[in-house]
Amino acid sequence: MRLNSYDDFTPLKEVILGSADGYRTRLHDLSFDMFISDNLTGARGYYPSITDWRPGEDRRRRNEPHRLALKTRFLEELIEDVEGLAAQLSALGVTVHRPLALDPDLGEMVTPAWSAPVTPPLNLRDNTLILGDEIIETPPTLRARYFETQFLKPVFTRYFREGARWTTMPRPLMTDASFDPANLSSAAPNIEVPEPPQPSPYDVGLEMMIDGANCLRLGRDLIVNISNANHALACDWLERHLQGRFRVHRMHKLTQSHIDSVVIPLRPGLLLIRSERVLDFLPKQLRAWDTVVSPVPELHDYPQYENGDPIPPSPYIDLNLLSVDEDTVLVNDECRTLIRALEDRKLTVVPVRHRHRRLFGGGFHCFTLDTVRTGNAEDYLG
pLDDT at position 74, please? Predict the structure, then answer.
């Protein structure tokens, strides 16, 4: 089928599902510290700070890349759960495409400004934005994921041959100076403020960086969360590129970056939101929609880990659900309070296992990139 995806709730026909195969290490560097935060809820009560993740480390060295080996058992269970999601989607009649496998002998990637281990293409929603019949590769915000979309080339090429547009936004050099320094002072309570940027001969100043998960797609409207100058530059590009085809709406500092665990359109006229405060950030047309307000997560709702393993995501990670159609949603099977809240609104909930979302980050929406839905460029905002 031809590429066609304008929203996150009309009937899903084709999807690309990420892969956790080959996930061995997590890179902590300035790009990671800048990315992991949650300025809406302030989650220190749930998760340790960056400093707590690095016990005994000299704070003056926190900018230096730091690699954390991931535990084999957790990785194996993550892979099992992703494959379980693939099976469930197939059982619901959705065609599931997969990325290229990560070569186990693949070494580090090296650019003129930095080096990093290659991260497998798991959270596909971040580095690609599908808008109607166009694939847009977004400028990455994490160095370790710089070449992630390369693993999707066979699938993207097939859609291109069937008539899709295919665009790559300008790629950042990603030196320390590329990141908005204002973000250093506005870091949320659950991260430590990153150390001052280090100079590089490849500095070009602030660059555009944004993830597809900063965006909410509603037919002919694109709502973009802007939390720093990097996002604003990227939104400038999107506005110029999409002019005449889509209306771009700026939403300022709803979260530090991704919004797909904060505001989720379940169907036209119905939103799932993290809290009532979310409405203050949305375009006024969306404030008139009916809402399901998420139950407040408790610490015991999530698996606990020993030895100070880093826990990057928000405690609201289970709001990162995937709609198969306007009446059916895939939700983490352990999130019983959320399941009940959605069932009370007459939604059919398909429970799917995802044990280590706290440890690895990402939910079912993050893991997937929907490429074919039946919806079109509707005017949902009027």
Answer: 84
pLDDT per residue over 284-335, tens digit each? Answer: 999 999 999 998 877 667 666 665 555 666 778 899 999 999 999 999 999 8
97 is catalytic: no
Task: List the chain domain ranges.
Answer: 12-373
How many C-beta atoms lie closer than 10 Å to residue 42's C-beta? 12
Sort 18 into a burial class: Cβ within 10 Å, 0-12 / 13-18 / 19+.
buried
Contact 106, 118 (CB under 8 A): yes
Per the CB < 8 A criterion, the answer to whether 273 and 294 are in contact is yes
Active-site residue, 252 included? no
Please tell me the class of the 12-373 domain: alpha beta
DSSP 3-state assignment of 67?
Answer: strand
Quick: pLDDT tens for 188-212. 444 455 567 889 999 999 999 999 9
The answer to whether the predicted template modeling score (pTM) of the entire model surpasses 0.70 is yes
Q: Which of 8, 21, 38, 211 is catalytic?
A: 211
For residue range 125-178, list pLDDT tens digits in order: 999 999 999 999 999 999 999 999 999 999 999 999 999 999 999 999 999 999
Choosing from 66, 258, 354, 356, the catalytic residue is 258
Q: What gap in Å lies between CA 260 and CA 265, rounded to an integer? A: 9
Q: What dihedral do alpha carbons 329, 330, 334, 336 form, nearest 10°? A: 10
Find where tokens 């006229």 sit: 269
The answer to whether residue 356 is catalytic is no
